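Annotated sample (chain length 174).
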Amino acid sequence: MESRTSSRSFGPVELSILSEADRHQRTVLVLPDDAHLLDEVTGGRHQTETSLRALVKAGWLVRVRRGTFVVRTRAGTLDRGALTLVGDITHHRHLVTGGAALVRAGMSDQSFRTIIVMTATPPRAWSWLGETVRYIKAREDALWGGRLYADSGSTRIARPTRALLDSLVHPRWG
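Output written by the structure step:
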């Protein structure tokens, strides 16, 4: 029986996409942001779309939401959690706060399945590996008290004091 991450159902163009993702250390592909990178490898938008469908079908790309895919590791695993994906998916200035930020700061041992993200232009909520990312509309000047989440590189997470204040003001957040 063929495994989920088999290379039998795609060809050299799809292998080139995976190689290019490796070369650029991309574990997440977001369209249309990464379209130029993919189109360069495939030769055009139509072939990119065809190749992405083949990679999804073969299990090498896993869809997070429309236009967003996580690339499996060479071992076939998914090593990105929802929190690390927030920065890749949220194109605007943002701040992860509440329970998710408290857990990462070691201030809570509870399991929070909803990650609260404050941003001025909230996209739709999405889920990944059992966690839901929910966006809350906030003014730009309300996005203070954050830092880059070390495991991500682009996700901004509230510092402990800010996360604690947000959780006190909004108890449902954590």
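Annotation: The two ends are 45 Å apart (CA to CA).
Annotation: The chain has a mean pLDDT of 91.
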